[in-house]
Amino acid sequence: GDQEAGELGLAAVPGRQAAFRQALEAAVHYARTVGCPRIHVMAGRVPLGTDRAAVAGEMETTFIENLRYTADLLSQEDMIGLLEPINNRITDPRYYLNTPHQAAAILEKVGRPNLKLQLDLFHCQIMDGNLSRNLETYLPLIGHIQIAQVPGRHEPDSPGELNFPYLFELLESLGYTGYVGCEYAPKGDTLEGLGWLRSYWESRGLQHGGTSKAAK
C-alpha cells in the first residue's frame, strides 16, 4: 500500500483489491528472484474515520477473498503466505489482524494449506499472553516465528517479561523446525546484541552456528 498515506498492507482493506493484487505480484517477483519461499501478506489498517466493529465483517470478507487469490497464486510458485497478528495496544491501534485466535479463525475459513500463521511472540504476549499454550495450540498452523522482549522490543536477554530460554526449549520439544526471526530493535551494536544467541548455544552444548560439539 501507500505508506505515506498511512497504509500498512492491503489484504483486508475494502475497495483496494486491485492494488493488493498488483502489489502481491510484485512481491512474488521479488521473492522468486531472491529465493525466498515465504511472503508476509499484510492485512492492513481499519480505514480512518470508521468504527472497527462496524467494518469488521466487510474487512474479513475482503481478507478471505484476497487470501484465496493469494493461495492460488503462491501455489504456482511453491511459496507460502504468512499472516501476522500485530498488537493494537502498543504498536498499531488501527491494524486489523490482532490476535493468533483471529488469524487461526480466518485461516480455517480460507482453508488453504499454503497459508500459515506468522507468530510474533512480542505481539502475542501483549495481546494474549499464555504463550506456552498458544504455541502448543497453533503449532500446526505456524509457518514462521518472530521474537522480541516485552515491552521494550529489544534483545531476548534484555529486561522484560519473557523467558526466552524456556520458550526456545519448548519450541524444540514441540518439534518446531522452522526459522525464528529476530524481529527486535538492538539496544546497541547488532553483533554485540547477538550475545544472547551465543550464550544459548553454549548452554545447549552447541558451537556458534548451532552445530553440536560432539560432532566435531
Descriptive account of the structure:
This protein is an alpha/beta fold and 216 residues long. It has one domain (3-204): Divalent-metal-dependent TIM barrel enzymes (TIM Barrel). Helices cover 41% and strands 10% of the residues. It contains seven helices and five strands; from the N terminus they run H-E-H-E-H-E-H-H-E-H-E-H. It has helices at residues 17-34, 52-75, 100-110, 121-127, 131-138, 164-174, 195-203; strands at residues 38-40, 80-83, 115-120, 142-147, 180-182. It has a five-stranded parallel β-sheet with strand order 1-2-3-4-5. Strand 2, helix 3 and strand 3 form a beta-alpha-beta unit. Helix 1 packs across helix 2 and helix 2 (52-75) crosses helix 3 (100-110). The radius of gyration is 18 Å and the shape is globular. The relative contact order is 0.10. The model has no long low-confidence stretch (mean pLDDT 95).
Distance between the termini: 49 Å
* CATH fold category name: TIM Barrel
The assigned CATH architecture is: Alpha-Beta Barrel
Order of helices and strands: HEHEHEHHEHEH
Unreliable stretches, pLDDT < 50, 5 or more residues?
none
Round the mean pLDDT to the nearest integer and report it. 95
Task: Name the strands of the widest sheet in spatial order.
Answer: 1-2-3-4-5
Number of domains: 1
Main beta-sheet annotation: 5 strands, parallel
CATH class: Alpha Beta
Task: State the CATH superfamily name.
Answer: Divalent-metal-dependent TIM barrel enzymes
The whole-angstrom Rg is 18 Å
**Strand proportion:** 5-15%
* Structural class determined from secondary elements: alpha/beta
How many DSSP E strands?
5
Overall form? globular
Percent helix, as a range, is: 40-55%
